[in-house]
Design goal:
Chain B: Pfam families: ABC_tran, BCA_ABC_TP_C. Chain B: This is ABC transporter ATP-binding protein. The complex is a heterodimer of chains A (about 375) and B (about 260). With about 375 residues, chain A is mostly helical. Chain A has helices spanning about 10-15, 20-40, 45-70, 75-90, 105-130, 135-155, 155-160, 185-210, 210-220, 225-230, 235-255, 270-285, 290-305, 310, 325-345, 345-360, and strands at about 165, 170, 175, 260-265. In chain A, the strands form two sheets. A two-stranded antiparallel ribbon of chain A has the order 1-4. In chain A, strands 2-3 form a two-stranded antiparallel sheet. Chain A is globular and about 60 Å long. The mean pLDDT of chain A is about 90. Chain B has about 260 residues and is α/β, with parallel strands linked by helices. The radius of gyration of chain B is 19 Å and the shape is globular. Chain B is built from ten helices and ten strands. In chain B, strands 6-7-8-3-9-10 form a six-stranded mixed β-sheet, with helices on both faces.
Chain lengths: ~375, ~260
């Protein structure tokens, strides 16, 4: 009915993902605009955005386990690494310097990367049934250090620190997505691929969140004993949360390095986990749109901070000098997390809700 | 009421925590569509009995049989799936979720679809969710929660939160309902509302109820039978009139020569 956007005459309408015409319109416009960007933007900008979309998939994953299910995980970088190396090893040509199986089709290595990471997640999950809160955070932190060591030493897989290896090679039915071709430049094709995958993963996460599974996650987060007493099997759902979250992380890992074409074991340090946590907290805890907004925010911050050495002579681009631009970034993530937690715990999504509320009730302040 | 198989049988249950005995030798049964009240001074072990029944605590001795099933071997979520629902003394709702989502969670074990169907949504998951929503709306109606539907429960007044918790238990379609102090901390109006809902649950839905409550007026007016506990031991079990005159009960509450 025109002009009555909140008049729902069936439960189906009431429970729809986009429940008002305005939401449907804006969502469609936003997706259309995003798909139109390759025509407008330079390849360099598309590269940054492609990376941001891959990170957004990972951030949605972290939000599933930490935001929705309330299990604080500092080990997200580890699962991203498992996915990245599974994808890289599967798609690399066999008999090279590093492990390779020659399966370059993306529909093979992407799900495989997700599943390998999910398997790792399911193995770690039993810890979450024993530990809560800070204790779980510390144990998952250990996972990152463990992974860092293994990836540095396992040179046949990772190429070793400072050397690295080629990342996953994306081909779709024989068409190389990582080379300039009839469909557009490499950056344009990869951008569209990442965007399409992000939309798919985001819709899947929203569906999961509004289902019995998402509700069970939230129940465990808010009151775990009450959740068990009303019929939610705690162990099963904690394992599921870690599994799904790690699946997202693994897929993100597989995709993340196809843009640069190169993986180095040093990438999977605690800093990457902290970046994901920053995305979730800055974007908005327990929201899918927040995860995407947070990933975009953090990714677009980087090109800005990287121009700092040129503008501020004190900040060096050299990692051996202090203060350098990477240290500034780390401090900035911490600062942003603190500021958001103090002033807007709901993150960017919260800011948006405030803006929306302001315009809805204008000219009244309540 | 008499002559039918009891819904729940509790036999000689003993529960202790490292030297402290919480309940000892508690025996009672609950008959179909009966309201059994459990009373006793603070620390008598009333809530501990509930925690044994819902699987949160595991007693050292005794038997608990619910509809022919031994409950002591089962984890809490399996007990819930059998149809044993409860509310808590201090409201234990899912604070960040709306009233609707809290009630939908009560139906968790009635859903049959898994994570894969949930991700795809269209088809099985959607049908199941829509059907569940209809059942949940009946409870919203029954408990007069219409105006709070979309509110996160942490923002609701205490009396309404208690009502939502009852709603969540009813959404489980229980075959036995445990109410832990349903009117604690409520004003007169809220208490009368809750009393009306409790009676409706027993009389309209035919669900037997075990109720722990300190409001003696309410207990004497509503209960079919009353179980009195003192220091974890059963002191008396009978109709409100019988229990009221029992010297052992008076001694438990007021003290006196043993």
């Amino acid at each position: 009915m025109r002009g009555r956007p909140l008049l729902h005459t069936s439960y189906a309408q009431d429970m729809a993902l986009l429940d008002t015409p305005a939401k449907r319109l804006w969502a469609a416009l936003l997706v259309a605009l995003a798909f139109a960007l390759p025509v407008v933007l330079a390849d360099r900008s598309l590269e940054v955005l492609s990376g941001a979309y891959a990170l957004a998939i990972g951030a949605i994953g972290l939000n599933i386990v930490t935001g929705y299910a309330g299990q604080v995980s500092l080990g997200h970088a580890f699962f991203v690494a498992v996915g990245a190396y599974t994808a890289a090893a599967l798609s690399a040509p066999p008999g090279g310097r590093t492990l390779g199986f020659g399966l370059t089709e993306i529909w093979i290595w992407l799900p495989a990367a997700g599943l390998a990471a999910a398997a790792a997640g399911v193995l770690v999950a039993p810890l979450a049934t024993r530990l809560r809160g800070l204790y779980l955070a510390v144990v998952t932190l250990g996972l990152v250090f463990l992974g860092e060591h293994v990836f540095k030493e396992w040179k046949a897989l990772t190429g070793g620190p400072g050397v690295g290896r080629e990342a996953a090679v994306p081909r779709l039915l024989g068409y190389p997505l990582d080379q300039d071709g009839p469909l557009g430049t490499k950056e344009q094709v990869l951008y569209v691929l990442m965007l399409a995958l992000l939309v798919g993963f985001a819709v899947a996460a929203r569906n999961l969140a509004r289902s019995r599974v998402g509700r069970a996650f939230a129940a465990i987060r808010d009151r775990d004993i009450a959740a068990a007493v009303i019929g939610v099997p705690l162990t099963r759902y904690k394992v599921l949360a870690f599994g799904v979250s790690s699946f997202y992380a693994g897929c993100a890992g597989g995709l993340l390095f196809t843009v640069s074409g190169y993986v180095e074991p040093g990438s999977f340090s605690l800093l990457l986990s902290v970046q994901f946590i920053a995305m979730v907290l800055i974007g908005g805890v327990a929201t899918v749109s927040g995860s995407i907004a947070g990933a975009l925010f953090i990714s677009l911050l980087q090109p800005l901070t990287r121009t700092l050495p040129a503008l501020v002579p004190l900040v060096s681009a050299d990692t051996t000098r202090t203060p350098n631009v990477f240290q500034v970034e780390t401090v900035l993530y911490g600062l942003l997390i603190v500021l958001f937690l103090v002033f807007e715990p709901r993150g960017l999504v919260g800011l948006w809700i405030r803006v929306r509320g302001y315009w809805k009730s204008w000219p009244f302040s309540y | 009421m008499s002559g039918q198989e009891p819904v729940l049988q509790v036999e000689d249950v003993r529960l202790g925590f490292a030297g402290v005995t919480a309940i000892d030798g508690v025996t009672f049964d609950v008959r179909p569509s009966e309201l059994l009240a459990v009373i006793g001074p603070n620390g008598a072990g009333k809530t501990s009995v509930f925690n044994v029944l819902s699987g949160v605590y595991r007693p050292q001795r005794g038997r608990v049989t619910f509809l022919g099933q031994d409950l002591l071997a089962l984890p809490p979520h399996r007990i819930a799936a059998l149809g044993l629902a409860r509310t808590f003394q201090n409201v234990e709702l899912f604070h960040n979720l709306t009233v609707l989502d809290n009630l939908m969670l009560g139906r968790h074990h009635h859903f049959r679809y898994g994570a894969a169907a949930a991700v795809l949504w269209f088809g099985r998951a959607r049908r199941a969710e829509l059907a569940a929503r209809e059942r949940v709306e009946e409870i919203v109606d029954f408990l007069e929660l219409e105006r709070w539907r979309r509110h996160p429960v942490r923002l609701l007044p205490y009396g309404i939160q208690k009502r939502v918790e009852l709603g969540r238990a009813l959404a489980m379609e229980p075959r036995l309902l445990l109410l832990d102090e349903p009117v604690a901390g409520m004003n007169v109006e809220e208490t009368e509302d809750m009393a009306r809902f409790v009676l409706d649950v027993r009389d309209e839905l035919g669900v037997p109820i075990v109720m722990v409550e300190h409001d003696m007026g309410l207990v004497m007016d509503l209960a079919d039978r009353v179980l009195v506990l003192d220091f974890g031991r059963p002191v008396a079990l009978g109709t409100p009139a019988e229990v009221r005159g029992d010297p052992a009960v008076i001694r438990a509450y007021l003290g006196g020569a043993a």
